[in-house]
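stage 2 :: seqdesign
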């Protein structure tokens, strides 16, 4: 007992005996291993998601210096922030845009971002081949560049390094490929296939100040901290407000803040992921309670064996160690099987979670996941084996050896099993109630009236290049011809075009002048309604009811006086207790007023 290696010898002996014992009871072993494997595998997969999305630092140099400037800014305001900030180097990026790539075989639609020239340098991201944008390459002329994602480079250009310097056509504009990013780069998301510079043209007041409101990110300058940047932000925004080409509310972006970039990226999903992690944790606890109940039942059958060990001189601690070793062995085997299940569960979770979940593609099984599985297996073995081991190690030597003594041992075991079953039921009720509430919430969402009737309606996205649609007559003629051809397809009864599909993530907002509501710099909210352009048949096809006035007609062409339809909520907000028909609206860039033709039901503002 005093030899240095005795503890290891005893442990090895316990392990061998435990493995032999479990091998002699394959049915019991299989049930317990599968129970623990399901719980451990589910927790390991969920931990891999949480680790990849919430815990791992961003894959950029000094990620703790990267921040998000909340709010959305037009190009003009972004330029003011970039030039006047003393604590941050600020970049703007407009993600999720769609581009048409032509001239490279079959035309394809790509998803990409327009970014300021310092976007990549602020992140500290380097191109895999070629280079990233350089200062000054986001102004007219030098901005005709493009950087490709690694996936697009491999898929469309065959991974040819000679693509650097080649001219390709994006939305009808020739752009030079200056770089290809590495396979590990994906910001704002791995859905981005290309990046082009922002077109920072201050001469185009409408585009520079009234369109393309975008998020901003920054890198703290040496010696600066988030608190200093936050204190500087509000004066910067106030300065930008004075530069707008039209009166802007002094409360614009009043709640803007400087947050760590990683925290801002995941704050919408943090609570959801932690809730899911707690849910699968409950599943593991249920599995542990189930295994503990099985071990407790098995300990009753082993009462004479344990009594014999005690009679030969085994201490209670020695008995406890042997029984806990067996339960840990069970859990480790379950952990090994759970690790195999982790890959399957992880695939299912990734496909089930929303595709826009930030950093979801980065989640995977790494050394932290392996360590988590090992720790979880050991803890599961100890948790599920401790109560049965304590119960079994309390031996009434004479009673256990006597015939029928097993029944006296069973009474205490029954009580403990009752407690364990009660615990299982309680945890299961929590999970079932939570799942029921989620299902009820989902059902209620399906019953919400969206304001239109989407049944039997199909959508097709068609986006001509912006350069083509600068010639408005040609763009209108293209859509007229498309609608004419679609009407001739068998099975189609109605067809219409709209620039933003309802309930999509697109929010085309415009700054407007409203009759009877002159704009003031101090107003609480600048009139910036959601706006959409439609063809005359759109409202009839969507079964959106007309409440007053008239709908669009074919006579409302480019040469006709401008008209506009407003939603009922817009009418109530700006013309309460008045008839909105005949009122006038125009964007701040237009010279001519548009006449309201009706008031209709719906969420869109115009």
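stage 2 :: out
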């Amino acid at each position: 007992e005093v030899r240095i290696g005795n503890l290891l010898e005893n442990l090895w002996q316990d392990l061998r005996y435990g493995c032999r014992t479990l091998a002699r009871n394959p049915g019991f072993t299989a049930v317990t291993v599968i129970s623990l494997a399901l719980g451990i595998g589910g927790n390991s997969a969920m931990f891999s998601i949480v680790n990849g999305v919430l815990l791992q630092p961003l894959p950029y140099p000094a990620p703790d210096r990267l921040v998000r400037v909340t709010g959305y800014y037009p190009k003009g305001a972004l330029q003011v922030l970039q030039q006047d900030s003393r604590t941050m180097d600020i970049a703007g990026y407009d993600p999720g845009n769609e581009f048409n790539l032509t001239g490279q075989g079959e035309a394809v639609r790509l998803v990409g971002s327009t970014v300021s020239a310092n976007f990549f340098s602020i992140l500290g991201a380097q191109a895999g081949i070629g280079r990233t944008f350089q200062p000054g390459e986001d102004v007219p002329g030098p901005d005709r560049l493009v950087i490709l994602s690694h996936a697009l480079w491999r898929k469309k250009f065959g991974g040819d390094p000679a693509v650097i310097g080649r001219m390709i056509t994006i939305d009808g504009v020739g752009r030079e490929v200056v770089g290809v990013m590495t396979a590990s780069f994906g910001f704002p998301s791995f859905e981005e296939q290309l990046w082009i510079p922002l077109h920072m043209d201050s001469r185009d007041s409408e585009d520079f100040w009234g369109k393309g409101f975008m998020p901003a990110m920054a890198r703290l300058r040496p010696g600066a901290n988030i608190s200093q940047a936050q204190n500087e932000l509000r004066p910067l925004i106030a300065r930008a407000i004075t530069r707008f080409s039209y009166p802007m509310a002094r409360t614009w972006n009043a709640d803007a803040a400087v947050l760590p970039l990683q925290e801002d990226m995941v704050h919408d999903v943090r609570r959801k992921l932690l809730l899911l992690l707690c849910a699968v944790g409950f599943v593991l606890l249920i599995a542990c309670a189930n295994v503990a109940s099985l071990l407790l039942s098995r300990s009753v059958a082993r009462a004479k064996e344990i009594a014999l060990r005690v009679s030969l001189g085994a201490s209670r601690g020695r008995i406890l160690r042997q029984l806990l070793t067996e339960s840990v062995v069970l859990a480790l085997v379950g952990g090994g099987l759970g690790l195999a299940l982790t890959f399957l569960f992880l695939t299912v979770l990734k496909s089930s979670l929303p595709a826009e979940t930030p950093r979801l593609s980065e989640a995977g099984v790494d050394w932290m996941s392996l360590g988590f599985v090992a720790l979880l297996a050991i803890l599961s073995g100890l948790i599920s084996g401790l109560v049965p081991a304590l119960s079994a190690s309390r031996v009434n030597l004479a009673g256990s050896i006597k015939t029928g003594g097993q029944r006296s041992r069973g009474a205490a075991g029954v009580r403990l099993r009752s407690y364990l079953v009660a615990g299982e039921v309680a945890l299961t009720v929590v999970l079932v109630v939570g799942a029921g509430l989620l299902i009820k919430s989902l059902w209620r969402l399906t019953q919400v009236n969206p304001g239109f009737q989407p049944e039997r309606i199909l959508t097709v996205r068609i986006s001509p290049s912006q350069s083509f649609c600068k010639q408005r007559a040609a763009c209108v003629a293209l859509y007229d011809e498309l609608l004419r051809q679609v009407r001739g397809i068998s099975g189609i009864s109605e067809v219409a075009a709209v620039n933003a599909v309802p309930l999509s993530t697109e929010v085309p907002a415009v700054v407007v002048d409203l009759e009877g509501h002159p704009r003031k710099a101090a107003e609480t909210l600048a009139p910036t309604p959601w706006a959409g352009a439609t063809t005359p048949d759109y409202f009839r096809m969507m079964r959106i009811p007309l409440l007053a006035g008239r709908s669009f007609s074919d006579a409302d062409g480019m040469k006709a006086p401008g008209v506009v339809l407003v939603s009922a909520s817009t009418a109530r907000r700006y013309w309460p207790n008045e008839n909105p028909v005949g009122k006038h609206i125009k964007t701040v860039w237009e010279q001519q007023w548009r006449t309201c033709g009706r008031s209709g039901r719906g969420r869109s503002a115009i």
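stage 3 :: structure notes
- Residues 405-446 form the longest helix (42 residues).
- The longest strand covers residues 88-102.
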